[in-house]
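Aim 2, interim progress: modelling of the zinc ion-bound target.
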Amino acid sequence: MKDDNCIFCKIANGEIPSKTIFEDEKFRVILDLGPATKGHALILPKDHYANIYELPEKTAADVFVLAKRMAADMTDKLGCDGFNVVQNNGEAAGQTVFHFHMHLIPRYDNDGQKIGWKPSEPSQEELEEIRAQIAD
Ligand code: 5GP
Ligand code: ZN
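Predicted structure of the complex, ligand included:
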């Protein structure tokens, strides 16, 4: 399943060239054009799924196994000091390309990047309300 208007479909399937660091039947892993750090890469499924909600469970499982393998290999080869795996869904969450992708971001001591959030301070009551909304 490809989407003719999707740039990541074209990259994943080799119609648009990319700096590919791994490829198999189901995935292509490419260097990000606007890297947060040296080696920042993206795992792209070759089939089109807009986001995590559309992703089949089997593909979700495979993508995380690949992320784990890439993290080990990239850490070995780049000598990075840490590693972020990041995945955005929806504009509100910072997604800008609407073909599922997983960011692989090697981290280096003092690399000057900040991937995170500002912690809030909910009360126990607020946490309980949220817990019940999700779990019950
Ligand atoms: P998102 O914000 O959707 O999670 O991430 C999209 C990522 O794709 C960004 O990090 C951006 O730099 C990268 N990107 C956007 N267009 C291209 C492209 O044409 N080629 C490559 N290699 N990366 C791209
Ligand atoms: Zn696509």
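The CA atoms of residues 8 and 86 lie 17 Å apart. The chain has a mean pLDDT of 97.
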